[in-house]
Amino acid sequence: MGSQPGEEFLQLIQANRGILYKICNAYCKNASDREDLAQEIIYQLWKSGKSFDAAHTFSTWMYRVALNVAITFYRKQNQAPTAVLGEDLENIEDNTSTNTQTEENIKLLQQFIRELKELDRALMLLYLEAKSYAEIADIIGITETNVATKISRIKEKLKQKFAASG
Q1: 3-state SS string over 60-88?
Q2: Distance between CA atoms of 16 and 100, rounded to whole angstroms?
């Protein structure tokens, strides 16, 4: 990673800190666990820095490492996550401020996503980040076709849950 590996590493982490926030929020329900997970992700990124392949972007590699660490951390904690999936969903504001139906739908979507299995939650996190199926496949380590199939099934499940809730 260059002549000043520590400095360059910290700059890359800082530039991609949004990834850390989103993943930690998706897999941990309290601030202490989020901090522990963030530290573990950074440690694992540092430790596995030699495995970084310059053919991929740093953010793609970071997502892959961070999601693997988060899923392992979540399983060790053996607790149901209650944090919102990503800060973008958490901070969506309706400028008309009267659209309560939209707000309710967003809250329902967040709840339904939190109820998904770890891999499905990771897929939706990346999908909602507007990653392409190719990028998602690269990050998760499954085929693009498998990504498309899984996302299609997840979307169908979410539609059914919305229909049942209304």
Answers
A1: HHHHHHHHHHHHHHHHHHCCCCCCCCCHH
A2: 33
85 class by beta-carbon count within 10 Å (0-12 exposed, 13-18 middle, 19+ buried): buried
Calculate the alpha carbon distances from 102 to 18, 22, 109, 121 in Å.
25, 22, 10, 21
Q: Is the pLDDT of residue 97 over 70?
A: no
Distance of CA 104 to the CA centre of its chain: 22
Query: Tens digit of pLDDT for each residue in 73-95?
Result: 877 775 444 444 444 444 444 44
**pTM for this prediction:** 0.62
Instruction: Give how far the C-alpha of residue 4 lies from the chain's centroid of Cα atoms, to the nearest Å.
Output: 29
CA distance 57 to 50: 14
69: tokens are: 């660490």
pLDDT digits (tens, 9 = 90+) for 107-161: 788 788 888 888 898 899 889 888 899 999 988 889 999 999 999 999 999 889 8
CB 9 within 8 A of CB 1: yes
Supply 155's token pair: 């979307």
Say if CB 140 and CB 119 are below 8 A apart.
Answer: yes
* DSSP letter (8 states) at residue 95: T
